[in-house]
Design the sequence.
């Protein structure tokens, strides 16, 4: 009976992880295709016209990089997660080098929501967390704007409740 209670207590203390929306992956992959597609065309057409068709094969290098980048972007997107706990926010990311950032609510000085023109086109926003120590600043990219605003409001409220500088 005692072991069941301990196991339940351990499960209850586990953070609930939230992944990033698929729109971020879609945006990043589209940017990859556009930029490397343009590079392949800019490399292949002049080489094919002025040097010879054999040299135009160098345009396959950006296309190979595009295929590799497609896979890497998917793995990177799946690695991003965040969890709201009672006293802090956890952010994990990274495939080869795993990074875990823990930002205590009481240390937050500023929480802002940003969205550049490409992000706005895809209906995305990022949450930027600022603390007194520059090394612990954290970002959660590619959120749906409503979730970004909800997270900003919640983090601000929790930071104020814990005597933060917000």
Sequence:
């Amino acid at each position: 009976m005692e072991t069941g209670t301990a196991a339940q207590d351990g499960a209850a203390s586990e953070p609930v992880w939230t992944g990033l929306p698929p729109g971020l992956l879609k945006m990043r992959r589209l940017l990859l295709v556009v930029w490397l597609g343009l590079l392949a065309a800019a490399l292949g057409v002049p080489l094919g016209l002025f040097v010879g068709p054999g040299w135009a094969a160098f345009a396959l290098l950006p296309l190979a990089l595009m295929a590799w980048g497609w896979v890497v972007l998917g793995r990177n997107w799946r690695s991003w997660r965040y969890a709201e706990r009672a006293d802090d926010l956890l952010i994990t990311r990274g495939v080869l080098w795993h990074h875990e950032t823990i930002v205590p609510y009481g240390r937050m000085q500023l929480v802002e929501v940003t969205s550049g023109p490409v992000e706005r086109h895809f209906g995305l926003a990022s949450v930027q967390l600022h603390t007194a120590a520059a090394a612990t600043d954290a970002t959660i990219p590619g959120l749906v704007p409503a979730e970004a605003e909800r997270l900003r409001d919640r983090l601000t409220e929790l930071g104020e409740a814990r005597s933060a500088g917000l």
